[in-house]
Design goal:
globular, Urease, subunit C, domain 1, alpha/beta, eight-stranded mixed β-sheet
Amino acid sequence: MAKAKTAETARPEPGVLLHRISQLVTMSGEPGPRRGRQMREINVVEDAAVLISGGRIAAAGESREVLRNPWLKEHRAELVELDCRGKVVLPGFVDSHTHPVFVAPRLIDFEKRVSGANYEEIAAAGGGIRASMEGVRAASEATLADHVFSALRQAQSQGTTTLEAKSGYGLDAASEIKSLKAIRRAAAQWQGTVLATFLGAHATPPEFKEDPDKYVELLCTEILPKVARQKLARYVDVFCERVAFTLEQTERILREAERYGLRSRVHVGQLTNTPLATILAHNPLSADHLDCLEKADMAALAAGETVATLLPGANYFLATKKYPPARKLIDAGAPVALATDYNPGTSPTISMPMMLSLACTQMRMTVEEALTAATINGAHALELGERKGSVEAGKDADLAFFELDDYRELAYWFGGNHCAAVMMGGRFADMF
C-alpha cells in the first residue's frame, strides 16, 4: 500500500488503479436504503480492482473486467497503480449520529454509573448532558473546533469517511451557534464529509428548568431561525424522551424545522416508548436509538422511508440489559443503520468496527447486515445514498482498507483497529 499523503500535500490524482484486491465489498445494489434480505446482499468480489478518476469511481469489480475498461487502456500510462493484495477494501463507513462538540469526558458520571446509578439518577444529580454545558459555554470556537477535528481524525483512523456532527451541549443561542461554527471550521480542515445537525433540543438548560416550554419558544423563534439564516446546519434533531422533550414540544420544533427548509432527525425510544406515528408524519430522515418499540412502531418504520438508526455503543456503555430490536426491525422490513453515538456521557467511542461487533454479538445481526447498516444505509440516513456508501461507478471514491483476509473479521476482532488506510474523494489521507 502506498504511503498515505498528508492533508497539506494531497491533490486529486489524474487516475488511480487499485488492483489485486483480496476482497472488495462493493455494497452495490438497487437504489434506496436496503431492507430485509437485501441487507445481506453485500457483493463480495475476490481478486478485484477499482479504477478511480477525478475523485470518483470509474469502474469496480473483478480485475479482469476492470482491466478491460476502455478509459484505462487509453490512460494507463498516467495512472498511479497500487497493489492491494492482503487487503479487504470496502466503502468508507458512514457514521450518521455523533455528538463531537464537547470539551472534557464526564468521569463523575462514569464513576456514579459503575457504582449503580442509572441515566436518570445521574441527570437528576446534575450530571448528564447539562454537565457538558458549562465547558462548551466557556470554551472558544477554536477550542471546540480542535476537539471536533480530533474526533474526525480518530474516526478516519477506524475507516470512517463520512460523519454527521451535532451541536447540543451549549443550550443557548450563543453557544449553539458557536458549536455549529466549530463543526464547520473543523470540517474545512478534514478531507472527509461532515454534515451538521442543530440539536438545541438536547436538554432543557438549568435557567429554564421551571419553564421548559419557554426554552422551546426560544429555540423556535430565535435560535433555529439564526441557524437557518446562517446555513450552519443541514438538519434539526430533537431528543424526545421523558427526561428531555415531550411529543408535543418535539412536534413544534419539527414543524419549525420544516418551515425553514431543514430536514429532521429524532432521538426517540431510548428509555421509554413513544408511539412513532405522529413523529413519522414529519418524515424525519432517521429515528435514532429505538430501544423501546412496539409492533405498531416497527410496522410504521417498515412502511416509510425513515431509517432506523441503532446505537449499540450507548447500550454497551450504560450496561443496559436491553439492546435495540435489530432482528425484529430487519425482519419487519425497516431500513436499519448503525452509528457510534459518539459523546462524552453515554458512548465515548468513535469506532464503527466496534459497532459492527456489538451489532453481531448483542443484536444478532449478520456481519453482512451490519456492514450494510454501517455504509449504504447510513448514507441514506444522511441523504447521501447517491454519492456514498457503496463502491459503484459514479460514486465518490471514499474507501477503507483493512489488513485482513476476510470481511467477517471486521466484526470478529473487537477492540482493535486493522484499518491500514482510507481514501476520501480519491485521495489517500494521512493516518497519524
